[in-house]
Design a protein that fits this description.
It is globular and about 50 Å long. With 453 residues, it is mostly beta strands. Strands 19, 20, 21, 22, 23, 24 and 25 form a seven-stranded antiparallel β-sheet that branches. Strands 26, 27, 28, 29, 30, 31 and 32 form a seven-stranded antiparallel β-sheet that branches. The chain contains two helices and 33 strands. Pfam families: DUF5719 (PF18986).
Length: 453
């Protein structure tokens, strides 16, 4: 193949990624090994990014077996606008949002507090980029618990969904989990109990043929006749050997101690859930670092292959912690924490999806006062430029293999770093608790250096 053929193929590939082929300068490349290759900087064209929101709190109305919206959420958007409303059973629910400027700056969050006879708690969830392959872990389908999978398709073509589901006893034979059709610009919601009944530790692998989709899990808890727990959380892209939770808040003994005498309140205890989708058992090393006073703790555990395992971390003192997990096999993991507010009587829980380490710019919309946790996985200190909605800018240094905690207020929060940084925002109010992540765009719109030769 000639040099020119190689360069031409590269230009076609760049066009497919949204880069202008006309920006590439074709320069003959020296073939002698002693000469440094010539390079060209390619500036990308504007990238259109569409993120998807799941919409209302969903559930069952009366004796109906059909999932529908029961309470509206508040949707806040920055750097873009709603371009498509998604329908569920002919009713408008979710939405697709497209950036109005830099695709790296668009962000949206949905949040809401509920306190009814059937649902009580607080949720806040980032809206996210559609994926063809995603993993969701968390929730419960045992007595008094329900977990609802919502699949949102904001595109103009249908999606055909296949689900793989695991539980504590292994892979679940789930009739009806293959070939689920989600029409264009619509949503479908399903109770996970319909696929995996009476399962305390579900995990789901979702594959979409056709359109990419955004999927979330919503979980609710009712103890006897008392509702006490609501959350919605998003996916991770793939199993990994390293999992990060930059902030988990452990409640005080005073706030939840009396509740724990009742076994039905066991899910307010902090815990990690693991899935090993492969055929080899995983050994995981869990490092728990306190943000306040105290010493780090290290725990090692074995996770059986092809199943899920919930690991309580009940011995932690109250306060904010950063959690990192290293595994010798690919895993999917989530973290759960609980709370109880004596003034309102509301008990709530939050599931935290793992937060990937990312470089570049990420944005997250914070629905109220909260705490930002940052984790640096690198061997050198990392500087993160944090800009809040009031225009304040801070260059924060996250130590090598360390963590940083910052209070944050309501509004858009933009973080930029040239080092891999993981982020999570923890929000707590009288209605309950929630976590959310700032996630990068799936296509990096930075300049690309093309090396000829």
């Amino acid at each position: 193949m000639s040099i020119l053929s190689k360069i031409t193929i590269g230009a076609v590939g760049l066009t497919a990624l949204g880069f202008s082929a006309y920006a590439v300068v074709f320069i003959p490349t020296p073939l002698s090994s002693g000469i440094a290759p010539l390079t060209t900087v390619v500036s990308p064209e504007s990238v259109t990014r569409s993120i998807v929101c799941s919409g209302d709190v969903v559930g069952y109305v009366g004796d109906s077996a059909i999932v529908s919206g029961i309470t509206a959420t508040t949707r806040v958007v920055s750097g873009g606008g709603i371009t498509t409303y998604l329908t569920m059973d002919s009713a408008t629910n979710g939405s697709a949002i497209t950036n109005s400027g830099d695709s790296l700056d668009v962000a949206a969050t949905e949040y809401g507090s509920v306190n009814t006879e059937s649902v009580a708690g607080f949720l806040a969830t980032e809206c996210g980029d559609p994926l063809n392959d995603q993993w969701l872990i968390g929730g419960n389908t045992t007595t008094g618990r329900d977990t609802i999978l919502t699949i949102s398709n904001g595109s103009e073509v249908e999606a055909r969904i296949d689900l793989e589901i695991w539980g504590s006893a292994g892979k679940v034979d789930a009739p009806g989990s293959l070939g689920i059709v989600v029409p264009a610009q619509s949503q479908r919601s399903y109770s996970v109990a319909g696929f995996a009944p009476d399962e305390a530790s579900p995990a789901i692998h979702l594959l979409s043929n056709g359109a990419a989709v955004w999927a979330t899990l919503q979980t609710t808890v009712v103890r006897g006749l008392v509702p006490g727990g609501l959350d919605r959380f998003g996916p991770v892209a793939e199993p990994t050997m390293s999992v990060l939770f930059p902030i988990l808040r452990v409640p005080t003994e005073k706030s939840i101690g009396k509740l724990l005498a009742d076994p039905s309140y066991a899910d307010v205890v902090a815990a990690l859930r693991f899935l090993v989708p492969g055929e080899t058992d995983a050994t995981v090393t869990i490092t728990l670092d306190p943000y306040g006073e105290g010493e780090s703790q290290v725990v090692t555990a074995s996770i059986p292959a092809g199943s899920t395992l919930d690991l309580p971390i009940s011995e932690l003192s109250a306060g904010d912690w950063a959690v990192s997990v290293e595994s010798d096999q690919p895993i999917v993991a989530a973290a759960r924490v609980g709370c109880h507010d004596a003034s309102t009587g509301i008990t709530d829980l939050a599931w935290a999806s793992a937060a990937p380490a990312q470089t570049g710019t990420v944005s997250v919309l914070v629905p109220g006062d909260g705490s930002l946790g940052l984790t640096n996985v690198g061997a050198s200190d990392a500087t993160v430029t944090i800009m809040s909605s009031d225009g304040m800018v801070e260059d924060a240094v996250v130590p090598a293999h360390g963590n940083l905690l910052r209070p944050v207020g309501q509004g858009i929060l933009t973080m930029t770093s040239n080092s891999p940084i993981s982020n999570t925002v923890f929000v707590q109010n009288k209605g309950g608790i929630a976590t959310l992540r700032g996630l990068t765009a799936p296509i990096d719109a930075s300049n690309v250096v093309v090396i000829h030769g």
